[in-house]
Amino acid sequence: MGFATSKAVDATARQPEASGKINSILLLGLALAESTAIYSFVIALILAVK
Amino acid sequence: MNIVTGIKLAASAVVFVVFLVLWCKKRHDTLSEPDPKKAKKKRRLPFFGMVISAWFFVACVVNLVTGGPKGISLELEMFSPRVQIGPLSVARTTLTAYVLMLVIAVLCVLFRVFAYPRFRDEPKGLQNALEAAVEFIDKFTRDTAGDLSPALPAYMFSVAVMLIGCAASELLGQRPPTSDLLFTFSLALCTFFLLNYYGVRKKGLFGRVKSLASPSPMIMPMRMLSDVAAPVSLACRLFGNMLGGMIVMDLLKNSLGGYAVGVTTLAGLYFNLFHPLIQTYIFIILSLTFIREATE
Q1: Best interface-test mutation with B: which of A23, A25, A42 has the largest number of B CBs within 10 A?
Q2: What is the pLDDT of residues B107-128, one digit of tens each?
Q3: pLDDT tens digits for B194-219?
Q4: 3-state percent breakdown (helix, strand, coil) of chain B, nearest 5
Q5: Which of A38, B12, B133, B252 is least enclosed by beta carbons within 10 angstroms?
Q6: Which domains does chain A have, with CATH numbers?
Q7: Looking at the partner chain, which of A24, A42, A49 has a beta carbon nearest the beta carbon of B240?
Q8: What residues contact B226, with CB distance under 8 A and at least 6 apart?
């Protein structure tokens, strides 16, 4: 996530006018990267709480 | 109804009336003010007081009707408790979702009857905000999923309103409907139907199957599996995020007990306001991305 954000900051610094598009791509990527953690959380809940 | 609830109800009602009187007085005083912006600024404090006390009052009434949150002991439940209505056993979150839909529908009708006829060519206030929101979601849908149908941005807008309403229901002391796996899964199933519908409509049934087998027929089971995985991933993501936020807020409230005044408010700014907004955005952008993938 840190890597993705740093790249996004780089890209915005190079091309400030594309910041809107970069933002949405960044959020999409962050959501996908986060999803593994969310899946494990859901599976842990299913295991713990029947 | 015990005495504390009665005191809370009465106090919030009294505060609301006081702020209402103040607001009316300020409004009457500032009618002669030439600059409307300045007049609005002067009315701001009583207006916010009115909104907050009304919110508190509604929360008290809701908690009175539903029995409110239980004690201090925290129990983690994957599915919400159920209530018996006649022969049906309904989850509390489903009930909340239906009441929420009713409230949103009533608000829409009120809006259509009272606010819509007063719209002018030059937007102002509420009309300005609404036009900006509608325009944004329209352009956003077109940019992300392509020009498919005018119904698609409308659907996405209603999903956004519903998800934000769910977050608001948590502020009223209810378990949000989004922390129910079935609710999020049904929303994700809608996305699944939409992506297949638009895929078939744009390319025809044969074209859709052909695009699934696009590099080679060998890969077709994988592509179909990834299509089936899309709604599951959408549902689990929304559910996990919302339930996680709810658990964090519950833990905070329970660990602080009666002193949970300032800290939970600050944490709630993130977990009840910012986090649901981001998750709504992500749900919509992912749905649109899946739809575009199916139609391309």
Answers
A1: A42
A2: 999 988 888 777 777 777 778 8
A3: 988 998 888 888 888 888 777 777 88
A4: 80, 5, 15
A5: B133
A6: 2-49 (1.20.20.10)
A7: A42
A8: none
